[in-house]
Amino acid sequence: MKFIKNMVRSVMNEAMDEALSRLIKDQYTENMAAMVPVGRKVGFPNFMEILMRSAQGTPVPRPLGSYIHFSPWESLLFNPVHLFRMPTPEQLGIGTSVTIGPLARKPLTISIPIMIAAMSFGGALSKSAKLALAKAATAVGTATNSGEAGLMKEEREAARLFIGQYNRGGWMNTPDKYKQLDAIEIQLGQGAQGSTSQRTSVKNIGEEYREVFELKEGEPAIIHSRLPGVNTTDDFIQLVRRLRDETGVPVGLKIAATHHLEKELEVALEAGVDFLTLDGAEGGTHGGAPTLQDDVGLPTLFAITRASQFLARKRATGKVSLIATGGLVTPGSMLKAMALGADAVYIGTAAILALIGEQVVKSAPFEAATSLVVYTGKRTSELDVDMAALSLQRYLNASVTEMELVAQSLGRTSLSELSKSDLCTMDADIARTTGIQWGWAGPEERIQAGAESALFMPHPSQISEPESAERYTTN
Amino acid sequence: MNGFQGNRPNYKGTKPKGDHDMIETNDMKQVLHYLHAEIVRIETMSGTLSSVEREHYQKLTNFEQKELIDIAVEEQSAARQLGTIKQMCLNMSQQLDGLIRNMDRGADNEIH
């Protein structure tokens, strides 16, 4: 044995010496070492995606959304209290429930402010993954979402609180289906895809998929860029009113967050929606074009801040619920989104990773962990549904408990009580644009520091005024 | 049928007519009072049970055994869901309170 070890060691030593010599002596242009600066210049994901595009000739479907951290959550910190306001006594339970659509005839009340995001059966996830999500959501008293799919009977039965997407594929858009939902989310876009169309080719559609989506054999599943039947603002308004009248459950709108946010929300409020779901640019997907993920939309942090301010201006705070989603992967960022004005959050990527949990060993090291849960995955049959549901239940409990600990330290008795006053920021620009206090200086010094600051961040409405615009002329 | 149900008025939602109007209104008020009182009781019960479940969570997490911690997690979820029921009851009792006060105000207006 020792002889073999020495042999291997000797061979490896020779090989390493040879490789190092070549790295040092070869012309840089022909050297493997050139891949290091090239890799750093292009970035590893971009490098791989260039090669994939060159091999496939079609957009490469990157799973789980952009890797770019658009929202600077780490620049926000919570402000614990000690004396001027006392921390909450530990014997007191922190309120975690939230009512979505309080003005609807049948509002949706959830026990924790974290919901399972829209991830469709077939288009994204396997049936077993969807059932595990529904079971975990039910166990903790929260809601799960159908995604852009038809109504899967087993999922509806497993989920006590089920939000269904009235979708651009048209698969949930008939009364026999949407009348079985606890809330209706009209899906016009998503953070990772904008409002673009999507297509699932026939080779990726199995028999059960066809059944749930009511597709004919050989028919692809197409998500249109527009909702069928909604070609004008007025069509949308009429649709919301009709669905509210017909069902009584909260009817909401989900869009990809964009810089046109306020204009979109204006229409939504006119229609009388009960809730708004804003999916930031960091939003995930089962597989989408990297350009749509990395270069389109508005980050979640800014989308929620702007939407919350808009609702306040329109006196709709507390009447229309605001749901944040997109890139919320830590309990801290979820709670910060709530402090910025979100009533609840959706999680997708984090929920999927938590769902896989200890079962990751089934796919490692030769397959991606997602092969256990995506519809087209090679190992979906190996996912233990009950174990997956338990893993997610544990994760949700741990996350909400961490959020409760922060609330206790802030002297709050419910997670919904958190506001911007519980936050400070290390970023002066965020302080100026969001109204969160700047942590570098106390409130009084801050006024002086702000006055001396050379940078002035204009509000969009100020830019359109000629007098204000002149201030930004650079000559 | 238990004793309490037997004693409370049986409001069938029939259309009130003439002298029956006042009787029907009184019946409905009594039903609302009954619902209000029961909802407040459910609110109190769920609040108490929520505290008990939360204590169970604390006690069970003192042990290092995984099975017990899983039960503790379930207890914690139950505590939150009971907290939700308490909140829902509070909202409902406030709505009923409003209805009762509106009915009282209506009756006062008729008298004056």
TrEMBL record, chain A:
InterPro entries the UniProt entry points to: Aldolase_TIM, GltB, Glu_synthdom
Q: Which residues form the signal peptide?
A: none
Q: Name one Pfam family in it.
A: Glu_synthase
Span of domain Glutamate synthase: 105-411
| Family as reported in the entry's similarity comment | Belongs to the glutamate synthase family.
What name is this protein filed under?
A: FMN-binding glutamate synthase family protein
